[in-house]
Amino acid sequence: MNMLIRIVFAALLVVPIGGISRADSGDAASAIRAEIEAIRSSYESRILELESRIAKIEEGETSTNGSTVLANTTTQRKVFGRDFNPSIGVVLNGRFARFTEDTGEIPGFGIGHEGERGREGVGISHSELNFSANVDDKFFGSLTAALVREDGEDKVELEEAYIQTLPGLGLFEGLTVKAGRALWTLGYLNEHHVHTDDFADRPLPYRVFLNGIFNDDGVEVSYLLPTDFYSEIGGGVFRGDDFPFGGSDGEGIDAWSLFARVGGDIGENQNWRLGGSLLSGKAYGGRNTEEGAQSFVGDTDLYVADLRYTWAPTGNPKTSELILQGEYFWRDEKGTYADSEEGTGAVAFDDTLEGWYAQAVYKFKPQWRLGLRYGQLDQPDVPLGLVGSSFDSQGFEPSTFSAMLDWTNSEFSRMRIQFNRENLASGYSDDQFIFQYIMSFGAHGAHKY
């Protein structure tokens, strides 16, 4: 452009304005046009050359033998495309807790270690290391290792390790198969990682009925129905080693599940989802219950109904949002119970137990949320012959109340304070204060709705 201005300016100086004949002016104009075309051609050629060099740099191709090679001033090595390289993410979860009671046991219920209230004082909570990527155009894979501290020792637990089909496999549209170990579809919260919860601990029914989460080894199939509203059905088969089962007989399939859920929008600023699930299986006395006191052998059916409603008053959930959520649990057990602490033998048992929770979380500012939650369990029926053992709840219905306030600086960092009052036994009231931080870095996939 600068060269073009100089040529035009020089032409004006050389040729007097008032003394240019019609023929001379035509020759001068032709000369200037020729100069312009030459400049344009030169610049276009240069631009094409630079664009070609940029494309080669971005693709990392500096050889013509079909391999992908990254050039370096000192060495050359093959670097294959990054489309299938794993995304790596880390979630750091820590907290400080203070309790007014020395123990958090729930008389009448056998719960596992993950169902306990956690340690008092400063400590690392459920932190995670995640690897995930498309294996190829037909499969996706993910692995999540949970870093926890149990019995005074740091431990690594395999929380998830699964593969999942992609549309490229050619299955029916809407059909997905997942195999391995995963947070399976059961109610609402179970398929969510704990660091995405709205509270610092899981609701009381999850602690009692599922030991926090159900992530047995197995296979699950789901089908998204071709309807105008959201509707999904599915089910799975599992090994039967995870709570509420345990002690699989070795055949490999001792539990199964079914689920269905629907949802949709209400106007532009509201939506809802309703679901129902069934988890059924056989326990062989291998439940990982607290202190190993209660042992159950028999059949267990667990039914879960869940409901979730969201409303964005301003039309933008990033600035203001109300979430109402609840789940109802109904468990039917038929088999025999024993209490190892009391030295009792197996006692026949055939009964049901119910529990539920409801919560409300309100985002009143873009970074601030306030939440309330209440959970309750029915009075457990003590098997005849075990009265006076650790099964005896003395006719009490356990309940918990929680209030929390959290601040989210970004999608990668959150801090939370929470107050719990747990009434788990007659004459027992545990006031709990919890401060929690959740920090994540690296790649991390979108959370489930």
Radius of gyration: 32 Å
- Examine the secondary-structure arrangement and name the CATH architecture of the largest domain: Beta Barrel
Number of domains: 2
Question: Mind telling me the CATH class of the largest domain?
Answer: Mainly Beta
Characterize the main sheet: 16 strands, antiparallel, barrel
Strand order of the largest sheet: 3-5-6-7-8-9-10-11-12-13-14-15-16-17-18-19
- In CATH, the topology of the largest domain is named Porin
Provide the CATH superfamily of the largest domain: Porin
In what range is the share of β-strand residues? Answer: over 45%
Q: Helix fraction? A: 10-25%
Strand pairing plus helix content: what structural class? mainly beta
Shape: elongated
Q: How many strands?
A: 19
Enumerate the spans where pLDDT stays under 50 for 5 or more consecutive residues.
7-23, 61-82
| H-E order | HHEEEEEEEEHEEEEEEEEEEE
Number of helices: 3
Fill in the keyword field for this structure.
3 helices, 2 domains, Porin, mainly beta, 449 residues, 13% helix, 16-stranded antiparallel β-barrel, two-stranded antiparallel sheet
Short description:
This protein is mainly beta and 449 residues long.
Would you kindly provide a written description of the structure presented here, covering whatever features stand out?
There is one protein chain. By secondary structure, this protein is mainly β. It folds into two domains: about 80 residues; about 350 residues, Porin. About 15% of the residues lie in helices and about 45% in strands. The chain is built from three helices and 19 strands. The strands form two sheets. The protein has a 16-stranded antiparallel beta barrel with strand order 3-5-6-7-8-9-10-11-12-13-14-15-16-17-18-19. Helix 1 packs antiparallel against helix 2. The longest helix has about 40 residues. The protein is elongated, with a radius of gyration of 32 Å. It starts with a helix and ends in a 7-residue tail after the last strand. About 10% of the residues have low confidence.
